[in-house]
Amino acid sequence: MSGQPETEQRIREAAFRALVKHGYADLSIKDIGDELGQNPSLIYHYFDSKDELLLSMLDVFVEIFLGQRAEEPITDAETELRRFVGQILHPEPAQVEAVMSAPPSDIETAIARVFVELWAHATWDDDFRSKTTAVEDGLRDAVERIIRAGIEREQFRPVDPEQTADHLLFLLKQGIHTQTTTNRSDAVDQVQTIVDEILADISREN
């Protein structure tokens, strides 16, 4: 089908915006079609169901948070780790627009809401759980790679890279979840403070 990759991407972007507005439980293919500005029947030419469409959308998180980072050399591990944490806690419009041509206006809130909605659905759906596991594995591997580079360049003390990466990823996830699902508006800032303390602890300069 002519233009298939471009159309699929437009549908994913529309699904992202619609999910932010309606939440997973109330989201329908019609809502996505309305957001797309097309008859909902078009969506079924590319995706068999709402779940198949949203499952494919999980790759958006990898593209936003990681991009081409896995192939890039690490010259300053601490700067790179701070950059990684910043992209997850405070995604900038520019980095999102590199993946989505028409993201929601409040992209930080939008990404957090979609993250919580899709990860919550993984509680009940094995396919989603497999995909969220793969996404988290990719994020953890990226953090572990940065920590190993910092140890090799003697920026960081010889900590356990896997355990430290898990610790940081758990913190980041909890901060996003808490800020999105409670009235703790300071949750992300508190996570940033704890991350700063961890970096100070593993840095050889301290």
Q: How does the SSE layout of this entry go?
A:
Layout lengths: L3 H23 L2 H8 L13 H8 L1 H7 L11 H13 L3 H5 L9 H15 L4 H27 L8 H21 L5 H16 L4
Helix pairs in contact: 1-2, 1-3, 1-7, 5-8, 7-9, 8-9, 9-10
Features:
206 residues, single chain, elongated, mainly alpha
Task: Describe the protein's architecture and organization.
By secondary structure, the protein is mostly helical. Helices cover 69% and strands 0% of the residues. The chain is built from 10 helices and no strands. Helix 1 crosses helix 7. It is elongated. The termini are far apart. The mean pLDDT is 89.
Q: How many helices?
A: 10
Radius of gyration: 18 Å
Catalogue the unreliable spans.
Answer: none
The total count of strands amounts to 0
Give the class from helix and strand content and strand pairing: mainly alpha
Mean pLDDT: 89
Hey, roughly how much beta strand do the residues contain? under 5%
Helix content range of the residues, please? Answer: 55-70%
Give the end-to-end Cα distance, rounded to a whole number of Å. Answer: 58 Å
Shape: elongated
Major β-sheet annotation: none
* Pattern of helices and strands: HHHHHHHHHH
Protein name: TetR/AcrR family transcriptional regulator
Domain HTH tetR-type: 5-65
DNA-binding region: 28-47
GO molecular function, one term: transcription cis-regulatory region binding
